[in-house]
Amino acid sequence: MSSRERHLVLTITCTDRTGLIYEIAGEFSTRGWNIDDSQQFADPLTHTFFMRVEASRVAADGEVEALEQALRARAAAGSMIVGLYDAEARQRLLILVSRIGHCLNDLLFRQATGQLHADVAAVVSNHPDLGPVARANGVAFHHLPVGPDNRAEQEAEILALVDKLQVDLVVLARYMQILSPSLVEALAGRAINIHHSFLPSFKGANPYRQAFERGVKVIGATAHFVTSDLDEGPIIEQEVTRVDHRMSPARLAALGQANESAALARAVTWQLEHRVFLNGNRAVVFR
């Protein structure tokens, strides 16, 4: 039997009870796995337990499967939601954009330089403007215009790409369209959005001009899961920058774009690394 170094990530969500950490550690130790990192959180409000474990060992064929079967059996007996993942596997992203390209550029750069452990399977846009950016990075670009008369058909094409390209995560990198409830449901738990953090105060066009006119002192960005409640899904990450009266609307917008890129990149990275757990309307993030 061939053996090689294996690195796994285990995620667990269940009702909190005494002895959970001991039980999970025992499953690894009795099979010779080393726990390299372990984080856990017991929510006192919902009595829900969340755990993320990184483990490794030189494993022969079938040993990962044996560990997974043992964990699945324990999950079934204890009403746990369990995920066991190959930490070295590269996941696949589908990026949705419109005409604003800073978040797309940032993600493509991080992927190309190895900072983002994933492959961008394709870029989809309702406008053609960012096609050259995607193609310059060797990524397929799909121009799928959308309007009141073809929204259902356009979203069906997006879902078809998700299936065809075996996409793990959909990233709305300044995609200026509201997804239909059916598309949101189809992508539940695997779609992340980014927006400026002025909502609900400054909606619509030119939010940074509106912020300038109101003399804001902090600007920010929020990355969150996509839900049917517009821009109100569980928050994964936020970034803020202090500003003052000397800064023009253009300067505020530039700082805001930097915030958006940073917050989105961290949220995507943590989701790819199985660090994000849904906890009702909130997210637990093991950084």
Can you offer a commentary on this structure?
The protein contains 8 helices and 13 strands. Helix 3 (102-112) crosses helix 8 and helix 7 (207-214) crosses helix 8. With 287 residues, the chain is α/β, with parallel strands linked by helices. It has 2 domains: 3-86, 2-Layer Sandwich (Alpha-Beta Plaits); 91-285, Formyl transferase, N-terminal domain (Rossmann fold).
Notable characteristics:
single chain; 287 residues; alpha/beta; Alpha-Beta Plaits; Rossmann fold; seven-stranded mixed sheet; four-stranded antiparallel sheet; 8 helices; 13 strands; globular
Summarize the structure.
With 287 residues, the protein is an alpha/beta fold.
CATH fold field value of the largest domain: Rossmann fold
**Tally of contiguous helical segments:** 8
Strand content: 25-35%
Helix proportion: 25-40%
Our Rg estimate from Cα atoms comes to 21 Å
Low-confidence stretches: none
What is the CATH C-level name of the largest domain? Alpha Beta
Q: What is the terminal separation in angstroms?
A: 36 Å
User: Judging by the overall fold, what is the CATH architecture of the largest domain?
Assistant: 3-Layer(aba) Sandwich
Task: Summarize the main sheet.
Answer: 7 strands, mixed
Q: In one word, what is the shape?
A: globular
Overall pLDDT level: 94
Q: Could you state the CATH homologous superfamily of the largest domain?
A: Formyl transferase, N-terminal domain
SS elements, strand count: 13
Q: By helix and strand content, what is the structural category?
A: alpha/beta
